[in-house]
Amino acid sequence: MRVVPRAHNTYYLHPRQFILDYTQYGLHVTYHNEEQFIEDYGQILHQKGCRATEQLNAVIVKIYNEIDRRKNLGKAALERIAIIKSSYKPLHEDVYTLKEKYLSNEFLKLVRHCKATGSTEHTVKQFMNTEKAESVFSMQVFTMDFCKVFIEEMEHFEKFDFPKGRPNTMNNYGILLNELGFDENFMKIFRSNYIEPIAKLLYPECTGTSLDTHKAFIVKYKPEEDTSLSFHYDNAEVTLNINLGKDFQDGQLYFGKMRQHNTETQKYSIIKNKPTIGILHRGQHMHGALPISDGERYNLIIWMRSSKVRNELCPMCDRKPELLHCEGRHDGFTSSSYPDVKTVDVCSTS
């Protein structure tokens, strides 16, 4: 246990839930200690080919390394941000500040309707495409001109030899947009003023009092790099996935059931992944991306989080969060402020 200052809007990390390499074992796991891990996952790992002691030890070492990585995420990110801020000159400075001209007329009409008095879940659906997968919706979000310029900015940044934080353990190529400087004047406004009004009508059980934090990042699909994304769920209450382009073949999204009802034998709903189009869904909805066969595609992913919801139940492990104080913003958990209490016990994973 450790004691940290209790402060309103202090952000914490819940570092015990992991995705083991999908290409090898394909598991979401929760790690508290070695005994618990072997008891909970030893049999299924054995069934998936992890039979030798050396193989199991390698898995546990991988988890230890991931715990250490997550503990240092905030510090490492702040160091990268400082380097980028001092050394990087953007190609298109305008794209770092959200302007309504970047948004499609269709999307602006949708947002205005959601903010109007009397709007309901039923009326908002008239402004969106309802996909075959349950509670999954699509709409044009950005203009094609904006998508083109945004991709140019991402490609420009990738040319520089700066240290780069990648989105997560499933994506080897991509960009964390907060490190590049997109949060305050773009993503934060986009989340609170445009996406949240929609999400509150469609997913009231997921949004709590507000979607108060987010993680925004770019993923890139290309032959010989990341070509697909395995079946998974997000560390988010609500996710918006926007296809930015370029020219590509295949790579459709596919959705199963909510993770609480996931089975190995289930039908999937296929959704075409078209440039400028955003796919809105609940973060716990199992989904993936089929392989891209040719070309190159950039997607903007925004994981939106409600501290009100996740402070009660971690969306990744279905338990009361056991939190680790950290620098910067991590998984969207918060500690409330009490004037008469100066400290709070927060569990660490050491």
Automatic annotation (TrEMBL):
Residues 212-306 form the Fe2OG dioxygenase domain. Keywords: Dioxygenase, Iron, Metal-binding, Oxidoreductase, Vitamin C. It comes from the Eukaryota. SMART domains: P4Hc (SM00702). Pfam families: OGFOD2-like. Gene3D superfamilies: q2cbj1_9rhob like domain. InterPro entries: Oxoglu/Fe-dep_dioxygenase_dom, Pro_4_hyd_alph. GO terms for molecular function: dioxygenase activity; iron ion binding; L-ascorbic acid binding; oxidoreductase activity, acting on paired donors, with incorporation or reduction of molecular oxygen. Its cofactor is L-ascorbate. PROSITE patterns: FE2OG_OXY. PANTHER family: 2-OXOGLUTARATE AND IRON-DEPENDENT OXYGENASE DOMAIN-CONTAINING PROTEIN 2 (PTHR24014). This is Fe2OG dioxygenase domain-containing protein.
